[in-house]
Amino acid sequence: MILMKDIIREGHPTLRAKSKEVQFPLSEEDRKLSEDLLEYVINSQNDEMIEKYDLRPGVGIAAPQVNVPKRIFALHFDENSGENLSLIAINPKIVSHSVEKAYLSAGEGCLSVDRPIPGYVPRYARVTVKAFDIEGKEYKMRLKGLPAIAFQHELDHLNGIMFFDHINPKNPFAEIDNAIAIDRASGE
Ligand code: 4LI
Ligand code: NI
């Protein structure tokens, strides 16, 4: 299982690398990695598991964060977050997006960043995405709210981009044109 000690932090070069496409059928290793990533986000939202293994909560984690530069990430939102979505995304892409933007009014956090970095992170408010699951089946879905934000945050990891790269350095809380603020962790 993935623990906090397995997660690389800001400054590690893998977080700035462009991750490689994954080939199908998935190797046993890639399958295990995919399942471990999803298991981490599920466990990280469970109070007993947090306490027992000293996990930091997250809704998303990407393979490069465990020092594997492959295009895989996992997202998990349970009912309490107002969403119900659990996915492994392999070779993911955004096929279309809204003109409207969105940002978390509380800012973004990242399992690979140990300090709070204040500021708005502009994202697309709605995205239509495509990815492959572990069986190699392609799926397509439309996301909004926190899932849309998290998908873009994790996709950025596969391209060596960190959330704070998007923060306005002059004024981290500068108004973002044509954007909606997401206040609750669930969005809307
Ligand atoms: C406990 C159990 C307040 C501060 C509000 C916690 C279950 C921040 C928000 C959670 C913030 C769960 C989250 C992300 C933010 C802040 C991620 C709590 C886990 C809220 C997820 C990837 C950015 C995603 C909304 C600096 C590790 N997650 N909060 N940002 N939650 N969580 N991100 N922002 N301010 N990061 O962090 O998984 S996109 Cl579900
Ligand atoms: Ni992150």
UniProtKB/TrEMBL annotation:
<comment type="similarity">
    <text>Belongs to the polypeptide deformylase family.</text>
</comment>
<dbReference type="Pfam" id="PF01327">
    <property type="entry name" value="Pep_deformylase"/>
</dbReference>
<dbReference type="GO" id="GO:0006412">
    <property type="term" value="P:translation"/>
</dbReference>
<keyword id="KW-0408">Iron</keyword>
<keyword id="KW-0648">Protein biosynthesis</keyword>
<dbReference type="InterPro" id="IPR023635">
    <property type="entry name" value="Peptide_deformylase"/>
</dbReference>
<dbReference type="GO" id="GO:0042586">
    <property type="term" value="F:peptide deformylase activity"/>
</dbReference>
<keyword id="KW-0479">Metal-binding</keyword>
<feature type="binding site">
    <location>
        <position position="153"/>
    </location>
    <ligand>
        <name>Fe cation</name>
    </ligand>
</feature>
<keyword id="KW-0378">Hydrolase</keyword>
<feature type="active site">
    <location>
        <position position="154"/>
    </location>
</feature>
<dbReference type="GO" id="GO:0046872">
    <property type="term" value="F:metal ion binding"/>
</dbReference>
<dbReference type="InterPro" id="IPR036821">
    <property type="entry name" value="Peptide_deformylase_sf"/>
</dbReference>
<feature type="binding site">
    <location>
        <position position="110"/>
    </location>
    <ligand>
        <name>Fe cation</name>
    </ligand>
</feature>
<protein>
    <recommendedName>
        <fullName>Peptide deformylase</fullName>
        <ecNumber>3.5.1.88</ecNumber>
    </recommendedName>
</protein>
<comment type="function">
    <text>Removes the formyl group from the N-terminal Met of newly synthesized proteins. Requires at least a dipeptide for an efficient rate of reaction. N-terminal L-methionine is a prerequisite for activity but the enzyme has broad specificity at other positions.</text>
</comment>
<feature type="binding site">
    <location>
        <position position="157"/>
    </location>
    <ligand>
        <name>Fe cation</name>
    </ligand>
</feature>
